[in-house]
């Protein structure tokens, strides 16, 4: 992948941008303006570009499960979400049914002149439809998809440049905010985080995810990633426990977020706690510009 | 990707097979037996493993659109389909709604105590549900997914070995068949077609897809692919017209299959004609072992 062979600067100067880049950036600008007017905090969530080395073992990650789940929890918590995802990855709300472990066609039954959701799935689906419709009607979710890594990198740059303006716009709109938007980077292209933080969105609160195979190295590796890339938080996780425990690693602290056995049994989504924790940290960042 | 660096033989001897390989093969064997008893012809359809070089431009292919669409048309035409696909790729029937260009949550409305499909989508969705339920109730579709290229290659080998037995079982069950199953390989790992044809499923009627950027080379390149890999048909297509025109290329013939402007306007799926043509050729293969 080019982004692994060249520096970001070289990459952007040597690669042709997607034709519709400015049009998409316009949509994002409109979305940000609209939600800033409503005093909404903005988060950009980027999903994982599917690469061979990730496909090889990151089944769920490659589907974008964590990104799609996090988007829902951010919206529940009052954020407006820009969801930059690989085309055909899992998406917020539909994720519960699109990817065939839970096929939505099995939930429907032809009943005379109607097609109805079966009794046993009605309540569960109603809750999702109501959340989905709210996000749609109140313009709280902007989904932008990419198909190529090149599209992804150009869009990420464009969006984070816009996200950096959130601060100024916030001041302009008299919001008690000086910290800028929240940028949640779930991807496997770490070197892109450096220009993102240093050049594109220095005002943003930027969080990256780090998947480790050796837990003893998680903290040290995450701390040096924070040094190297200059962002605020690394959320570390291990492949086989990533749905049950993660570690928040900042320059000055580490914190474990873990589901109880009971929560695991009841299929509580750890993203609920990850996002709650991130919002606390983002609020601190907004008021103090420090973590 | 390993399969591009080593020969298939080297690959299979140097790589550990997936743990559940035999269990999955057992499912496929059962599916084949069941449908052979019903005198069903069997087709194996394999979808595209997502690779960087394909992600870069094969947007729709990478989603498995052609594979999922072809599976539906084969079932409509009386075949039993083994659908070997990348996890989270498009799948038969659900493909119409899962991948957000046409979000199924937009089709549902909460109506008092029920959740119903909206009036304007009822007829269209009813038709799909009925086809989906028939395929499910009559066991005409077996979906097996993979997440890694290694899984894909081992499953492909295992399945085609089983597909090759279809001939003998057919004879055993007194079906007018001596030609074996149909194997539709949509993937971008051409060298795998050689052992598939020569070693794993020599009785099968094997078809590969070839995406060309230079139409003037399509026929010559396809003919040499047939020579090199020993299979029966290459279906050639060009990236930007692949949904409207394809070329069937055999050793002794070429045939164009093209949608009319009117069919394009009415969004007729070219797979309908591709599969009709393939079935004719498969029948000829079954009775004469020649194309």
From TrEMBL, chains A, B:
<dbReference type="GO" id="GO:0003824">
    <property type="term" value="F:catalytic activity"/>
</dbReference>
<dbReference type="GO" id="GO:0015937">
    <property type="term" value="P:coenzyme A biosynthetic process"/>
</dbReference>
<protein>
    <recommendedName>
        <fullName>Phosphopantothenate-cysteine ligase</fullName>
    </recommendedName>
</protein>
<dbReference type="InterPro" id="IPR035929">
    <property type="entry name" value="CoaB-like_sf"/>
</dbReference>
């Amino acid at each position: 992948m080019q982004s692994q062979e060249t520096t970001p600067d070289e990459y952007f100067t040597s690669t042709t941008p997607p034709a519709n880049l400015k049009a998409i950036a316009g949509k994002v600008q409109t979305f940000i303006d609209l939600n800033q007017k409503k005093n909404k905090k903005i988060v950009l969530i980027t999903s994982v570009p599917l690469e061979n080395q990730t496909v090889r073992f990151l089944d769920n990650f490659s589907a974008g499960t964590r990104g799609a789940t996090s988007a829902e929890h951010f919206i529940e918590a009052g954020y407006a979400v820009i969801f930059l995802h690989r085309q055909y990855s899992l998406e917020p709300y539909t994720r519960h049914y699109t990817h065939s472990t839970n096929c939505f066609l099995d939930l429907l039954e032809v009943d005379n002149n109607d097609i109805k959701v079966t009794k046993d799935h009605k309540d569960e689906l109603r809750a999702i439809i109501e959340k989905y419709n709210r996000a749609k009607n109140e313009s709280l979710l902007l989904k932008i998809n990419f198909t190529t890594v090149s599209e992804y990198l150009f869009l990420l740059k464009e969006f984070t440049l816009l996200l950096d303006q959130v601060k100024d716009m916030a001041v302009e709109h008299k919001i008690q905010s000086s910290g800028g938007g929240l940028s949640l980077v779930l991807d496997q292209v770490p070197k892109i985080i450096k220009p993102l933080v240093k050049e594109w969105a220095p005002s943003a609160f930027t969080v990256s995810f780090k998947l480790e195979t050796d837990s003893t190295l998680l903290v040290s590796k995450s701390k040096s990633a924070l040094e190297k890339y200059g962002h605020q938080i690394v959320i570390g996780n291990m492949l086989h426990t990533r749905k049950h425990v993660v570690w928040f690693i900042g320059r000055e602290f580490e914190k474990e977020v873990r589901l109880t056995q009971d929560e695991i049994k009841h299929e509580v989504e750890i993203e609920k706690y990850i996002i709650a924790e991130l919002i606390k940290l983002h609020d601190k960042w907004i008021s103090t510009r420090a973590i």
